[in-house]
Protein backbone atom coordinates (compact mmCIF):
# COMPACT_ATOMS: atom_id res chain seq x y z
CA UNK A 1 0.00 0.00 0.00
CA UNK A 2 2.79 2.41 0.91
CA UNK A 3 4.45 1.75 -2.45
CA UNK A 4 1.21 2.51 -4.29
CA UNK A 5 0.84 5.81 -2.43
CA UNK A 6 4.44 6.70 -3.19
CA UNK A 7 3.98 5.96 -6.90
CA UNK A 8 0.89 8.19 -7.00
CA UNK A 9 2.77 10.96 -5.20
CA UNK A 10 5.60 10.83 -7.72
CA UNK A 11 3.08 10.88 -10.60
CA UNK A 12 1.30 13.89 -9.11
CA UNK A 13 4.62 15.64 -8.66
CA UNK A 14 5.41 14.98 -12.31
CA UNK A 15 2.11 16.52 -13.36
CA UNK A 16 2.54 19.65 -11.27
CA UNK A 17 6.18 20.21 -12.18
CA UNK A 18 7.50 19.73 -8.64
CA UNK A 19 10.34 17.32 -7.82
CA UNK A 20 9.21 14.08 -6.23
CA UNK A 21 10.71 15.18 -2.91
CA UNK A 22 8.05 17.92 -2.73
CA UNK A 23 5.15 15.62 -3.55
CA UNK A 24 4.32 15.09 0.12
CA UNK A 25 3.42 18.79 0.36
CA UNK A 26 0.64 18.55 -2.21
CA UNK A 27 -3.05 18.58 -1.38
CA UNK A 28 -4.51 15.35 -2.75
CA UNK A 29 -8.11 16.40 -2.05
CA UNK A 30 -8.38 19.56 -4.18
CA UNK A 31 -11.70 21.38 -4.43
CA UNK A 32 -12.12 23.84 -7.29
CA UNK A 33 -14.79 26.48 -7.53
CA UNK A 34 -16.64 26.98 -10.82
CA UNK A 35 -18.36 30.33 -11.21
CA UNK A 36 -22.02 30.19 -12.27
CA UNK A 37 -23.46 32.74 -14.69
CA UNK A 38 -26.82 34.19 -15.64
CA UNK A 39 -29.15 31.84 -17.51
CA UNK A 40 -29.36 32.19 -21.27
CA UNK A 41 -32.55 33.97 -22.29
CA UNK A 42 -33.52 31.30 -24.84
CA UNK A 43 -32.89 28.28 -22.57
CA UNK A 44 -36.20 26.37 -22.32
CA UNK A 45 -34.80 24.23 -19.49
CA UNK A 46 -33.69 27.15 -17.31
CA UNK A 47 -34.42 27.01 -13.61
CA UNK A 48 -33.57 29.65 -11.03
CA UNK A 49 -31.30 32.46 -12.18
CA UNK A 50 -27.96 30.87 -13.09
CA UNK A 51 -26.25 27.75 -14.40
CA UNK A 52 -23.00 25.82 -14.79
CA UNK A 53 -22.52 23.49 -17.75
CA UNK A 54 -21.86 19.98 -16.44
CA UNK A 55 -18.98 19.43 -18.86
CA UNK A 56 -16.80 21.78 -16.80
CA UNK A 57 -17.57 19.80 -13.66
CA UNK A 58 -16.77 16.50 -15.36
CA UNK A 59 -13.59 17.98 -16.82
CA UNK A 60 -12.20 18.73 -13.37
CA UNK A 61 -13.53 15.56 -11.77
CA UNK A 62 -11.82 13.48 -14.46
CA UNK A 63 -8.48 14.78 -13.23
CA UNK A 64 -9.05 14.12 -9.54
CA UNK A 65 -10.71 17.28 -8.24
CA UNK A 66 -14.08 17.97 -6.65
CA UNK A 67 -16.18 20.99 -7.49
CA UNK A 68 -17.98 23.67 -5.53
CA UNK A 69 -20.46 25.87 -7.46
CA UNK A 70 -19.97 29.59 -6.89
CA UNK A 71 -23.32 31.32 -7.02
CA UNK A 72 -23.87 34.78 -8.46
CA UNK A 73 -25.63 37.51 -6.47
CA UNK A 74 -23.68 36.79 -3.27
CA UNK A 75 -21.97 39.31 -1.01
CA UNK A 76 -18.25 40.03 -1.12
CA UNK A 77 -18.00 38.64 2.40
CA UNK A 78 -19.53 35.34 1.25
CA UNK A 79 -17.13 35.18 -1.69
CA UNK A 80 -14.13 35.84 0.52
CA UNK A 81 -15.22 33.11 2.91
CA UNK A 82 -15.55 30.67 -0.01
CA UNK A 83 -12.22 31.73 -1.48
CA UNK A 84 -10.51 30.70 1.73
CA UNK A 85 -11.79 27.12 1.54
CA UNK A 86 -11.33 26.26 -2.16
CA UNK A 87 -8.10 25.47 -3.97
CA UNK A 88 -8.63 27.11 -7.35
CA UNK A 89 -11.16 28.83 -9.60
CA UNK A 90 -12.47 28.01 -13.07
CA UNK A 91 -14.18 30.74 -15.12
CA UNK A 92 -16.22 28.89 -17.78
CA UNK A 93 -17.40 29.73 -21.24
CA UNK A 94 -20.84 31.18 -21.85
CA UNK A 95 -22.58 34.28 -23.09
CA UNK A 96 -22.90 37.12 -20.58
CA UNK A 97 -21.80 40.75 -20.50
CA UNK A 98 -18.18 40.56 -19.31
CA UNK A 99 -18.27 44.15 -18.11
CA UNK A 100 -21.62 44.48 -16.29
CA UNK A 101 -22.92 41.01 -15.40
CA UNK A 102 -23.14 39.39 -12.00
CA UNK A 103 -20.67 36.83 -13.37
CA UNK A 104 -18.20 39.67 -13.91
CA UNK A 105 -18.83 41.14 -10.47
CA UNK A 106 -18.07 37.82 -8.78
CA UNK A 107 -15.08 37.10 -11.03
CA UNK A 108 -13.57 40.45 -10.09
CA UNK A 109 -13.84 39.68 -6.37
CA UNK A 110 -12.11 36.32 -6.77
CA UNK A 111 -9.50 37.74 -9.16
CA UNK A 112 -8.50 40.42 -6.67
CA UNK A 113 -8.46 37.91 -3.80
CA UNK A 114 -6.23 35.62 -5.88
CA UNK A 115 -3.81 38.45 -6.67
CA UNK A 116 -3.59 39.32 -2.99
CA UNK A 117 -3.19 35.69 -1.92
CA UNK A 118 -0.47 34.89 -4.44
CA UNK A 119 1.41 38.06 -3.50
CA UNK A 120 1.38 36.70 0.06
CA UNK A 121 2.76 33.30 -1.12
CA UNK A 122 -0.65 31.61 -0.89
CA UNK A 123 -0.64 29.77 -4.22
CA UNK A 124 -4.10 30.08 -5.79
CA UNK A 125 -4.64 29.20 -9.48
CA UNK A 126 -7.30 30.53 -11.87
CA UNK A 127 -8.31 29.00 -15.20
CA UNK A 128 -10.41 30.81 -17.82
CA UNK A 129 -12.02 29.06 -20.79
CA UNK A 130 -13.46 31.04 -23.73
CA UNK A 131 -15.65 33.60 -21.95
CA UNK A 132 -13.42 33.02 -18.92
CA UNK A 133 -10.40 33.90 -21.06
CA UNK A 134 -12.13 37.06 -22.19
CA UNK A 135 -13.16 37.93 -18.65
CA UNK A 136 -9.56 37.72 -17.46
CA UNK A 137 -8.44 40.15 -20.15
CA UNK A 138 -11.03 42.68 -18.97
CA UNK A 139 -10.12 42.22 -15.31
CA UNK A 140 -6.42 42.71 -16.02
CA UNK A 141 -6.63 45.63 -18.47
CA UNK A 142 -9.80 47.30 -17.11
CA UNK A 143 -10.89 47.52 -20.75
CA UNK A 144 -12.80 45.44 -23.25
CA UNK A 145 -10.23 44.94 -26.00
CA UNK A 146 -12.00 42.10 -27.80
CA UNK A 147 -12.63 42.12 -31.52
CA UNK A 148 -14.99 40.13 -33.74
CA UNK A 149 -13.59 37.02 -35.43
CA UNK A 150 -15.09 34.32 -37.62
CA UNK A 151 -14.62 31.52 -35.09
CA UNK A 152 -18.14 30.53 -34.12
CA UNK A 153 -17.87 26.77 -34.70
CA UNK A 154 -14.49 25.61 -35.94
CA UNK A 155 -11.72 23.27 -34.79
CA UNK A 156 -8.16 24.53 -35.25
CA UNK A 157 -4.55 23.54 -34.61
CA UNK A 158 -2.56 25.75 -32.26
CA UNK A 159 0.31 27.93 -33.45
CA UNK A 160 2.84 27.80 -30.63
CA UNK A 161 4.83 30.91 -29.76
CA UNK A 162 8.62 30.51 -29.44
CA UNK A 163 9.43 28.70 -26.22
CA UNK A 164 5.77 28.07 -25.38
CA UNK A 165 6.29 24.31 -25.17
CA UNK A 166 8.51 24.97 -22.13
CA UNK A 167 5.84 27.08 -20.42
CA UNK A 168 4.34 26.03 -17.10
CA UNK A 169 1.19 24.91 -18.88
CA UNK A 170 2.72 22.87 -21.68
CA UNK A 171 6.13 21.70 -20.47
CA UNK A 172 4.85 18.40 -19.03
CA UNK A 173 2.63 17.56 -21.99
CA UNK A 174 3.89 14.49 -23.90
CA UNK A 175 5.54 15.27 -27.23
CA UNK A 176 2.83 13.46 -29.18
CA UNK A 177 0.12 15.59 -27.54
CA UNK A 178 1.97 18.80 -28.34
CA UNK A 179 2.44 17.61 -31.92
CA UNK A 180 -1.28 16.84 -32.24
CA UNK A 181 -2.21 20.25 -30.86
CA UNK A 182 0.13 21.90 -33.36
CA UNK A 183 -0.83 19.87 -36.42
CA UNK A 184 -4.41 18.64 -36.04
CA UNK A 185 -7.76 20.44 -35.97
CA UNK A 186 -8.57 19.42 -32.40
CA UNK A 187 -9.16 22.62 -30.43
CA UNK A 188 -12.86 23.53 -30.45
CA UNK A 189 -13.64 27.22 -30.96
CA UNK A 190 -17.13 28.55 -30.25
CA UNK A 191 -16.66 32.30 -29.89
CA UNK A 192 -17.42 35.43 -31.84
CA UNK A 193 -15.04 37.65 -29.88
CA UNK A 194 -11.28 37.29 -29.51
CA UNK A 195 -8.25 39.13 -28.18
CA UNK A 196 -6.28 40.04 -31.29
CA UNK A 197 -2.50 40.08 -31.17
CA UNK A 198 -2.69 43.69 -32.27
CA UNK A 199 -4.84 44.72 -29.30
CA UNK A 200 -2.76 42.66 -26.88
CA UNK A 201 0.48 44.19 -28.16
CA UNK A 202 -0.85 47.72 -27.85
CA UNK A 203 -1.97 47.31 -24.22
CA UNK A 204 0.86 47.63 -21.69
CA UNK A 205 -1.08 45.99 -18.83
CA UNK A 206 -1.83 42.83 -20.79
CA UNK A 207 1.70 42.57 -22.19
CA UNK A 208 3.24 42.85 -18.73
CA UNK A 209 0.81 40.40 -17.18
CA UNK A 210 0.35 37.59 -19.72
CA UNK A 211 2.68 35.53 -21.83
CA UNK A 212 1.23 34.45 -25.17
CA UNK A 213 1.60 30.70 -25.61
CA UNK A 214 -0.43 30.05 -28.77
CA UNK A 215 -2.26 32.00 -31.43
CA UNK A 216 -4.76 31.27 -34.17
CA UNK A 217 -6.26 33.10 -37.11
CA UNK A 218 -9.67 33.21 -38.72
CA UNK A 219 -7.97 33.95 -42.04
CA UNK A 220 -7.96 37.70 -41.44
CA UNK A 221 -7.14 38.37 -37.80
CA UNK A 222 -4.54 36.72 -35.58
CA UNK A 223 -5.86 36.18 -32.06
CA UNK A 224 -4.52 34.70 -28.84
CA UNK A 225 -5.75 31.19 -28.11
CA UNK A 226 -3.67 30.28 -25.03
CA UNK A 227 -1.87 32.40 -22.46
CA UNK A 228 -0.53 32.26 -18.91
CA UNK A 229 0.38 35.00 -16.47
CA UNK A 230 4.06 35.66 -15.83
CA UNK A 231 3.91 36.07 -12.04
CA UNK A 232 0.66 34.34 -11.14
CA UNK A 233 -0.78 30.83 -11.69
CA UNK A 234 -3.44 32.20 -14.04
CA UNK A 235 -4.16 30.37 -17.30
CA UNK A 236 -6.57 31.06 -20.14
CA UNK A 237 -7.64 29.28 -23.31
CA UNK A 238 -9.95 30.71 -25.95
CA UNK A 239 -10.73 27.13 -27.06
CA UNK A 240 -12.74 24.45 -25.21
CA UNK A 241 -10.79 21.45 -23.87
CA UNK A 242 -13.86 20.23 -21.95
CA UNK A 243 -16.05 19.75 -25.03
CA UNK A 244 -14.29 16.84 -26.74
CA UNK A 245 -15.11 14.18 -24.13
CA UNK A 246 -18.29 15.61 -22.65
CA UNK A 247 -20.37 17.51 -25.25
CA UNK A 248 -22.04 15.67 -28.12
CA UNK A 249 -23.99 18.11 -30.29
CA UNK A 250 -23.36 17.34 -33.96
CA UNK A 251 -21.87 20.63 -35.04
CA UNK A 252 -18.80 21.87 -36.84
CA UNK A 253 -15.97 22.41 -34.39
CA UNK A 254 -16.82 19.43 -32.19
CA UNK A 255 -13.98 16.90 -32.17
CA UNK A 256 -13.94 13.49 -30.49
CA UNK A 257 -10.72 12.01 -31.85
CA UNK A 258 -8.32 10.12 -29.60
CA UNK A 259 -5.75 12.91 -29.82
CA UNK A 260 -8.36 15.51 -28.82
CA UNK A 261 -9.40 13.43 -25.79
CA UNK A 262 -5.77 12.97 -24.79
CA UNK A 263 -5.14 16.71 -25.00
CA UNK A 264 -8.20 17.26 -22.80
CA UNK A 265 -6.82 14.83 -20.23
CA UNK A 266 -3.49 16.64 -19.89
CA UNK A 267 -5.16 20.04 -19.81
CA UNK A 268 -7.41 19.01 -16.92
CA UNK A 269 -4.60 17.32 -15.03
CA UNK A 270 -2.39 20.37 -15.34
CA UNK A 271 -4.91 22.68 -13.71
CA UNK A 272 -5.85 20.19 -11.01
CA UNK A 273 -2.15 19.73 -10.24
CA UNK A 274 -1.93 23.49 -9.80
CA UNK A 275 -4.85 23.38 -7.35
CA UNK A 276 -3.02 20.66 -5.42
CA UNK A 277 -0.45 23.30 -4.44
CA UNK A 278 -3.10 25.18 -2.47
CA UNK A 279 -4.02 24.10 1.07
CA UNK A 280 -7.23 26.00 1.77
CA UNK A 281 -9.78 23.75 3.45
CA UNK A 282 -13.25 23.79 4.95
CA UNK A 283 -13.56 24.09 8.71
CA UNK A 284 -15.48 20.81 8.94
CA UNK A 285 -16.57 17.85 6.86
CA UNK A 286 -20.21 18.90 7.19
CA UNK A 287 -19.47 22.36 5.77
CA UNK A 288 -17.57 20.78 2.90
CA UNK A 289 -20.41 18.38 2.15
CA UNK A 290 -22.97 21.19 2.03
CA UNK A 291 -20.89 23.15 -0.49
CA UNK A 292 -20.11 20.43 -3.03
CA UNK A 293 -21.78 20.12 -6.45
CA UNK A 294 -23.10 16.68 -5.46
CA UNK A 295 -25.99 18.43 -3.73
CA UNK A 296 -27.39 19.43 -7.14
CA UNK A 297 -28.76 17.38 -10.01
CA UNK A 298 -27.77 18.19 -13.62
CA UNK A 299 -30.58 18.64 -16.14
CA UNK A 300 -30.35 16.76 -19.43
CA UNK A 301 -31.02 19.32 -22.18
CA UNK A 302 -31.06 17.03 -25.22
CA UNK A 303 -28.53 15.94 -27.81
CA UNK A 304 -29.08 19.07 -29.90
CA UNK A 305 -28.05 21.40 -27.09
CA UNK A 306 -24.63 23.06 -27.04
CA UNK A 307 -24.50 21.97 -23.38
CA UNK A 308 -25.64 18.38 -22.88
CA UNK A 309 -26.35 18.93 -19.18
CA UNK A 310 -26.61 22.01 -16.96
CA UNK A 311 -26.69 22.54 -13.24
CA UNK A 312 -29.15 25.31 -12.32
CA UNK A 313 -29.11 27.51 -9.23
CA UNK A 314 -31.36 30.05 -7.53
UniProtKB/TrEMBL annotation:
<dbReference type="Pfam" id="PF07722">
    <property type="entry name" value="Peptidase_C26"/>
</dbReference>
<keyword id="KW-0964">Secreted</keyword>
<protein>
    <recommendedName>
        <fullName>folate gamma-glutamyl hydrolase</fullName>
        <ecNumber>3.4.19.9</ecNumber>
    </recommendedName>
</protein>
<feature type="signal peptide">
    <location>
        <begin position="1"/>
        <end position="23"/>
    </location>
</feature>
<dbReference type="GO" id="GO:0046900">
    <property type="term" value="P:tetrahydrofolylpolyglutamate metabolic process"/>
</dbReference>
<dbReference type="InterPro" id="IPR015527">
    <property type="entry name" value="Pept_C26_g-glut_hydrolase"/>
</dbReference>
<dbReference type="GO" id="GO:0005773">
    <property type="term" value="C:vacuole"/>
</dbReference>
<feature type="active site" description="Nucleophile">
    <location>
        <position position="130"/>
    </location>
</feature>
<dbReference type="InterPro" id="IPR011697">
    <property type="entry name" value="Peptidase_C26"/>
</dbReference>
<feature type="active site" description="Proton donor">
    <location>
        <position position="240"/>
    </location>
</feature>
<dbReference type="GO" id="GO:0005576">
    <property type="term" value="C:extracellular region"/>
</dbReference>
<dbReference type="InterPro" id="IPR029062">
    <property type="entry name" value="Class_I_gatase-like"/>
</dbReference>
<feature type="active site">
    <location>
        <position position="240"/>
    </location>
</feature>
<comment type="similarity">
    <text>Belongs to the peptidase C26 family.</text>
</comment>
<dbReference type="GO" id="GO:0034722">
    <property type="term" value="F:gamma-glutamyl-peptidase activity"/>
</dbReference>
<keyword id="KW-0732">Signal</keyword>
<keyword id="KW-0378">Hydrolase</keyword>
